[in-house]
Amino acid sequence: GLSQYSSDPRTEWDLSTYSTRDQVLEAMRNLRYKGGNTFTGLALTHVLEQNLQPDAGARLEAEKLIILLTDGKSQDDANLAAQTLKNLGIEIFAIGVKNADEAELKQVASEPLELTVYNVLDFPLLSSLVGRLTQVLCTRIKEKSNKENADIPVNTGPQLSPTDLKISAVTSKSMHLTWSPPLRPPKKYRIVYYPSKGGIPKEVVLDGSLSSLRLSNLTSHTEYLVSVFPIYDTVVGDGLRGVTSTLPLSSPRSLRVSELSHNSIRLSWKAAQGATQYLVLCSAAPDGAED
Ranges for the Fibronectin type-III domain (predicted)? Predict the structure, then answer.
């Protein structure tokens, strides 16, 4: 599977899209480079929520590996997102090119760093990594597969996955989430939420006995993506996803002007619900030279 990212991650193809080496190489040849910012934390969260799910071709019994390729320092918290992935048993290899921050690569990557962190001066030099990286990846998969037991649950469905996510009591700063728990209660829930147009993902971890949460300190008039993941000892169940927008802030109404003089005016208006202060801007018309 492959995703590109800037301020808005984009899935190019899922794990289940192609079944032969030639198909993957052809897709790579047709790939268009996506320029823009470097929100690595948002990209890692996208991979977890979108690309490492059963409906995208991820098999629960298979080892999970992420190869991060970046040419710059992240503009959000990549370490927090990476730690979440690593806590779920997902291994991260970090490859830096040109202006990548090596300290950040080492924070994001899994241990041992001598096998999982690579840095080259320019894109053509990436070819020098292919042989060693291929060998390391294959060896790591074999090692992990041999160590782990074969009794990891393969089938999710209602056994391991919550259902019926409902978002209610939406205000300009908060919303309330509820869901129906799976048949087998999880150890924990991980709730991830962030603005759909790009922003730093935030997360809350809940005890598995709970099935509701109030999100607060949100930005007004903003569309949020919300995901709820059940966490078990050896597996992550299918996530629930929802989207909703916070309400706009209440506005003052009925602006009136009175008591005009050569150097003053009086303004009055109907109050905006919940406002604690008002900012009044006044400028000379039509040029507005001085505020």
Answer: 161-250
